[in-house]
Amino acid sequence: MKISKLALVAMLACGVNAGVASADQAYGISQVGCFEQSNCDCGEPVCGCEMVEPACDFGCDTGCDSGCGSGCLGGGSLGDPLELFGSTDSGWSAGGWASIGYHDAALPLFNSRPDEVQLHQAWLYAEKAIDTSNGFDIGGRIDYIYGTDSQDTQAFGIDNDHWDNGWDNGPDYGHAIPQLYAEAGYGDLSVKAGHFYTIIGWEVVQATGNFFYSHAYTMYNSEPFTHTGALATYNVNDNVTAYGGYVLGWDSGFEDNGDAFLGGLSVGLSDDLTVTYATVGGVFANNQDGYEKGYMHSIVADLALSDNLQYIFQSDLLDSEDRAGATARNTFGINQYLIYTLSDRLAVGGRFEWYDQEGVFNNDNGTPDDDSDDTLQQSDIYALTLGLNYRPMANVVVRPEIRWDWDDAELIGLDDGDHQTTFGIDSVITF
To answer: Quick one: which H or E segment has residue 422?
Structure first.
């Protein structure tokens, strides 16, 4: 007998969590007041951390301490998160997560497979974090992903199926190794070399790094996901961090797909406000199917309005051209996020995006137009998302949301032509 959609959603939100809760009891986790993952530093700028979780903001300074008792939704504080492997002495750690979700309508973003429960991310990582407090240190990291998000984070920038770009399992599922790099550091300077995630923007590919289940148009269409090359990070002082390096274009594996500069600056203007400017400029793609060069930047302001209320403002600009000098993509976007932490277990948030695009969507089926002879079409796209993050335990977050999209030129294939309402929910289980 076919299981109803409502039953599937209920299983997603409740059944998985109940099973993990039994593991919590079996391992006898101690109670603490601040949730932190082992590789997450609550004081680090958002754009400078590979694994920045909103949980940092939610757990480090909330109105619910370890002794709040029934003041938290669900009663009591969260327990320590279970970890696959972690060693504070050696710096070695290993873990991962599973992201399982459902959404009732397709979007031309990650969530392109509607009306079914799906495995978005089965993620594993191993890392040797560097510690330069005593001088020179060396480390590195490798990440592996399987699921419907994998094809969007493969090295698709080159058209020859190099690295992981051909590791598909059907039209949507597949495998990817989005990070494989070595890192060395001494004092306030560190250098990362290999294949790694970008420092551009506020949203990330990792499900553990975002408040919302769905993604912004800006993040998906106007920002790189991965780079291959070398990136230096220098902590100028407690409030200023500088980035600079050379990368082989956008979203490429270990083959030359262009020559570009990747860098930026993160400045703590006060205890409550951090502004990060990150940019990439040069040749983004240089292969048989396409050539693109230009400039792109992202400016992110992260402001703590109170102990429990966080506001994020992001502005992205992308201006690029093809081999003939014609416009390839010309986009500008503004994303605003407002996140309010009610307790260690519950937070509510909203996101509003205005995305002005030319060269990304040029037909009526929600995909880029490959015909260079066509006149590029400009459109303004708007999206409002409201959602919750609920943590029944430290290793589990459930993220229901409702989202409204408008498209003034009807280019992106929304259900009702120029608008669409989408409901989505997922569970992220870390280990």
So the answer is: strand 419-430
